[in-house]
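Query structure, 774 tokens:
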């Protein structure tokens, strides 16, 4: 392959040939001023402190520290640092369990092991964990015994001391001490350029609200267990303490007369039992066994998160009614995912369902869902809600929660005040009325707290600036915050807290797993700030100053792989031209590839110099998995005339790029089990250039260096029925397939840019690798 210097591309970019680089952070439109500059722009060691005082300013963390008294000087983590666990509390205390939804919560030793691995990832240091009553000036000491009578510290507060004698974190509970390690971890991330020197000082930190929750719809899109663990890692980093998993659901349904094919619609039930009475309902694409849930809950506990499982009935129940159409309300005006509560067999089934699965979960609280049911059957629904609440308490010694529904199902029967309510919509419930009746309330009010990818009704991405500046858990009407009839008092004792919910209403094909994580990560930090610290910091630090440091934290959370943004020294992430007879990366990043199973470099001719010959069984591997938007990926391909069905051009665990699929000869993307045709056909025995680029709104596909397609899917929801653009996570782990289904032919000039690219530049990129025209 003809080689052109990459510096030429860099120079071209400088004069605008390559295209527009990432936009800078927009200037703030707010009039807020920062009353503590050091806190807003990040901590620097004391040698750079501003003013005449050497007292250390408040360190930047999310959520913000409630109280900080700065000391003088720094403390630096080192290779001799240990995490020392107080033997008196190493195995936890009774208060740990009393202040958790979960039985048998994690203890200080468990949390120390989590922290140990995170320090390794952030600093590269192999710190040890020891159980001892004394610690040295180099150590981090974890202990309990903080004043449990301190009304502000409550069960999750902690005291943090950083001084010349070492670091001490003291909680009332083990989880409270763990939150102190989150603070220390974030301080280390932001001190990476300062040799991990941390400011000396004393913090007294505590949450304003006891429940800081995220809710995940895992029914309408298959989500692997590994992704769920990363959701936990993400939210634990910001001191969320509760996760609710929505295990069953279906797309939005019309009434039976308007949806005669309702039994063919996708539905999700993600719990897979060995019991034949219930195993039939579990999805084949993704579902979780009892062992999976045990593993997952143990992972959650070691990160301070409680799990609330939800099985949502009597609506959202297509996963059950499609097997039992006789269980539906026999009326053309009824939705087929509504279970007929007048049928005693139905109620017995739901009791049995909880009897099968309640024991899988350590939580003392379950969610029965109970929203969006037939409004004409209000008292029947209310009786069912109260019955299930009593049934769960009597049979499992657990409490229940539900989605706000009392306005939607009017009736004469009062819903029990022992049910906690997740308020989500004013047409469904009124939080001010709920607390008057004695119900605990959690704020998940839509649209502010609702994340619904690709939705026209709710936010595709949470507006984090709006949350940071205007929202708090007591705010149920962000447009009318001062109206007492539309909001609760910040000190309302029945207000448990709040958070945000991710709903996948538009099913799997509308959004990739990587996109979901991206949306969650960009919402979590602002919500965490307001759930823990309220407006104390956001009233004084402008969002424009807060956001860049929030971004740095978000992009460096240890244990996260779903960002899919590999590190790069320049705009090229990978550049393979094969001219050295090997798969050397010319980007400067050192991401060299490897030839496998007979793949070999050959003289290709036709202006291409050297290229790699692949057969169905051979492939090239790279050290990277995938890249999320923005990016551009391209390569030259000369396929032989005969190809296996679904022959692979590119592959990773996130998806594949196929030369064709089983029903079409066109180049095809496969992501999360979904197929996206491009209508582009690569001619056999001819060099063609294929490339694709994602910019955050769409994925453009280029054939012979001209844009020929935009990746789309058809939104089949009854109230949408239109084509929508799709963002592909680029698979770059292998050129060809590791499973014996590679494209048979020549490949050349493989590149990955860590930004998007466009038509004029794509021609420049293609010709960079070959002195040939397609």
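Result returned for the query:
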């Amino acid at each position: 392959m003809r080689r052109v210097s990459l510096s030429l591309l860099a120079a071209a970019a400088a004069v605008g040939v390559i295209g527009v680089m990432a936009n800078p952070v927009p200037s703030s439109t707010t009039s807020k001023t920062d009353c503590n500059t050091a806190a807003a722009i990040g901590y620097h060691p004391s040698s750079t402190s501003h003013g005449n005082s050497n007292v250390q300013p408040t360190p930047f963390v999310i959520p913000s520290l409630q109280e900080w008294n700065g000391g003088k000087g720094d403390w630096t983590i080192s290779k001799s640092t240990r995490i020392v666990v107080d033997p008196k509390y190493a195995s936890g205390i009774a208060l740990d369990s009393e202040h958790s939804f979960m039985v048998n919560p994690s203890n200080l030793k468990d949390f120390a092991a989590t922290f140990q691995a995170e320090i390794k990832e952030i600093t590269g240091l192999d710190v040890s964990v020891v159980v001892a009553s004394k610690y040295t000036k180099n150590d981090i000491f974890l202990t309990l015994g903080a004043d449990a009578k301190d009304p502000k510290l409550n069960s999750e507060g902690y005291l943090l001391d950083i001084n010349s004698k070492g670091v001490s974190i003291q909680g009332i509970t083990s989880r409270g001490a763990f939150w102190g390690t989150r603070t220390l971890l974030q301080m280390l991330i932001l001190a990476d350029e300062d040799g991990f020197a941390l400011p000396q000082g004393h913090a007294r930190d505590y949450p304003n609200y006891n429940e800081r929750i995220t809710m995940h719809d895992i029914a309408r899109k298959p989500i692997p267990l590994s992704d769920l663990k990363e959701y936990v890692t993400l939210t634990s980093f910001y001191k969320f303490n509760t996760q609710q998993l929505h295990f069953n659901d279906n797309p939005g349904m019309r009434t039976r007369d308007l949806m005669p094919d309702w039994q063919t619609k996708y539905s999700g039930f993600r719990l897979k039992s060995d019991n034949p009475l219930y195993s039939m309902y579990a999805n084949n694409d993704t579902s979780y066994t009892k062992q999976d849930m045990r593993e997952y809950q143990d992972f959650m506990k070691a990160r301070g998160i409680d799990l609330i499982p939800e099985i949502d009935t009597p609506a959202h129940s297509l996963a059950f009614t499609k097997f039992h159409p006789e269980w539906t309300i026999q009326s053309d005006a009824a939705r087929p995912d509504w279970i007929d509560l007048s049928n005693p067999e139905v109620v017995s089934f739901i009791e049995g369902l909880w009897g099968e699965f309640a024991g899988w979960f350590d939580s003392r609280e379950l969610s029965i869902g109970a929203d969006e049911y037939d409004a004409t059957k209000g008292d029947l629904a209310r009786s069912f809600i109260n019955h299930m609440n009593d049934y769960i308490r009597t049979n499992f010694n657990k409490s229940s929660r539900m989605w706000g529904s009392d306005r939607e199902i009017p009736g004469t029967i009062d819903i029990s005040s022992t049910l906690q309510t997740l308020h989500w919509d004013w047409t469904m419930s009124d939080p001010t009325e709920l607390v008057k009746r004695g119900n605990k309330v959690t704020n998940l009010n839509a649209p502010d707290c609702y994340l619904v990818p690709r939705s026209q009704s709710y936010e595709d991405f949470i507006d984090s600036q709006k949350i940071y500046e205007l929202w708090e858990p007591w705010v149920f009407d962000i447009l009318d915050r001062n109206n007492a009839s539309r909001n609760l008092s910040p000190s309302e004792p029945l207000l448990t807290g709040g958070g945000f919910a991710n709903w996948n209403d538009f099913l799997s094909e509308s959004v990739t797993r990587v996109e979901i994580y991206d949306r969650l990560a960009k919402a979590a930090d602002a919500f965490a700030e307001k759930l823990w610290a309220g407006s104390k910091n956001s009233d004084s630090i402008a969002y424009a100053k807060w956001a860049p440091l929030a971004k740095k934290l978000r992009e460096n959370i240890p244990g996260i792989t779903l960002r899919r943004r590999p590190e790069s020294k320049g705009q090229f992430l990978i550049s393979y031209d094969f001219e050295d007879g090997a798969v050397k990366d010319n980007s400067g990043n050192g991401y060299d590839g490897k030839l496998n199973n007979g793949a070999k470099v050959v003289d290709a001719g036709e202006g291409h110099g050297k290229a790699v010959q692949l057969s169905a069984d051979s492939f090239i591997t790279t050290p990277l998995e995938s890249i999320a938007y923005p990016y551009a990926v391209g390569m030259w391909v000369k396929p032989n005339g005969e190809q296996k069905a679904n022959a692979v051009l590119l592959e990773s665990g996130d998806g594949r790029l196929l030369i064709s699929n089983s029903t079409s000869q066109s180049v095809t993307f496969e992501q999360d089990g979904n197929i996206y045709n491009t209508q582009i056909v690569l001619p056999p025995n001819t060099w063609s250039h294929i490339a694709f680029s994602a910019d955050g709104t769409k994925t453009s596909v280029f054939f012979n260096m001209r844009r020929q397609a935009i990746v789309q899917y058809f939104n089949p929801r009854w109230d949408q029925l239109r084509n929508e653009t799709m963002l592909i996570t680029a698979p770059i782990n292998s050129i060809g397939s590791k499973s014996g289904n590679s494209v048979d032919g020549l490949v050349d000039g493989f590149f990955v840019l860590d930004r998007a690219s466009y038509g004029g530049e794509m021609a420049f990129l293609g010709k960079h690798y070959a002195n040939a025209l397609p």
